[in-house]
Write a structure and sequence with these properties.
- The structure holds two protein chains of two kinds.
- Chain A is globular.
- In chain A, strands 2, 4, 5, 6, 9, 10 and 11 form a seven-stranded mixed beta sheet that branches. A four-stranded antiparallel beta sheet of chain A has the order 1-3-8-7, with no helix packed on it.
- Chain A is an all-beta fold.
- Chain A is 0% helix and 57% strand.
- Chain B is mainly beta.
- Helices cover 0% and strands 51% of the residues of chain B.
- Chain B contains no helices and twelve strands.
- In chain B, strands 2, 5, 6, 10, 11 and 12 form a six-stranded mixed beta sheet that branches. Chain B has a four-stranded antiparallel beta sheet with strand order 3-9-8-7, with no helix packed on it. Chain B has a two-stranded antiparallel ribbon with strand order 1-4.
- In chain B, strand 7 and strand 8 form a beta hairpin.
- Chain B is globular.
- The termini of chain B are far apart.
- The chains are: A mainly beta, B mainly beta.
C-alpha cells in the first residue's frame, strides 16, 4: 500500500460546527503532515508529527487541532472556523530524516459557510 | 532566508512541443530537490527528485530535471508535451540543516495549447 487516504473528500460546514478530517497511511512512515492550500497557491505547512509527537506547529490558530492517535492515523479537528479557512487540506507522510520526499493524499476540499 | 523561486506563474505551450519550467533556490547548505505535479482537484504527486549523484534526473511521465549547483537551479523539462500534462507544477526544496520539512515554490501552471 503506497497511498495516503484522506476522508472526506469534500466537506461543507457552518462556522459553529465541529468536524474532523482524517488521514491514514500504511507505508510505515513515522512523519505525517497537514498542509493547507488556497486556490492558485502552493501548499502551506500547518503541522508536523514525528513518531506520533507534534514537532512543528506553524503558528496555526487554535480552531485547528491536530491529533495523531497512532503511527498510521492523523486527524485534524475543526471548530469555529471562518469562511477564509475554506481551502484544500492535504495530508502527507514520509520517513523522518529521509530524502525520499513526501507522499500526499488527494486532499479534503473544505468550504466554511 | 531560504527560498524557492519559480520564475513563471504560467507557461503556455503547444501540444508536442518541448517545455522547460524553471526553479531556482537560495542555498548555503546542501539540498534535496523535488518536483511535484498537481492535477485539477487532486493532491500532489512526486514527479522526480534529486538527492545526489548524476545531475540529470529522470522522472515519471517523460519528465526530467537537471541540477545545476553553480546556478542553484533545478529546471524541469519534457521534450514533447501532451494535453494530459495540463497541471500545476511545484518545485520543492529540503535544506539539510532544517527541520524535517520542505519548502514549496509558488507553482507554475502548464497550459497545453491544441
Amino acid at each position: 500500500d503506497t497511498e495516503v487516504t484522506q476522508t472526506p473528500k469534500h466537506l461543507v460546514m457552518g462556522m459553529t460546527n465541529k468536524k474532523s478530517l482524517k488521514c491514514e497511511q500504511h507505508m510505515g512512515h513515522r512523519a505525517m503532515y497537514w498542509y493547507k492550500q488556497k486556490a492558485k497557491k502552493p501548499p502551506e505547512l500547518m503541522f508536523v508529527y514525528s513518531y506520533e509527537k507534534l514537532s512543528i506547529n506553524e503558528s496555526v490558530p487554535s480552531r485547528f487541532s491536530p491529533e495523531c492517535p497512532n503511527s498510521s492515523l492523523l486527524n485534524l479537528h475543526l471548530h469555529a472556523l471562518q469562511p477564509e479557512d475554506s481551502a484544500l487540506y492535504l495530508c502527507a507522510s514520509s520517513s523522518p530524516g529521509s530524502n525520499y520526499g513526501y507522499t500526499f493524499g488527494s486532499g479534503t476540499r473544505l468550504t466554511v459557510v | 532566508a531560504q527560498s524557492v523561486t519559480q520564475l513563471d506563474s504560467q507557461v503556455p505551450v503547444f501540444e508536442e512541443a518541448p517545455v522547460e519550467l524553471r526553479c531556482n533556490y537560495s542555498s548555503s547548505v546542501s539540498v534535496y530537490l523535488f518536483w511535484y505535479v498537481q492535477y485539477p482537484n487532486q493532491g500532489l504527486q512526486l514527479l522526480l527528485k534529486y538527492l545526489s549523484g548524476s545531475t540529470l534526473v529522470k522522472g515519471i511521465n517523460g519528465f526530467e530535471a537537471e541540477f545545476n549547483k553553480s546556478q542553484t537551479s533545478f529546471h524541469l523539462r519534457k521534450p514533447s508535451v501532451h494535453i494530459s500534462d495540463t497541471a500545476e507544477y511545484f518545485c520543492a526544496v529540503h535544506w539539510m540543516n532544517r527541520d524535517d520539512k520542505i519548502i514549496f515554490g509558488k507553482g507554475t501552471r502548464l497550459h497545453i495549447l491544441p
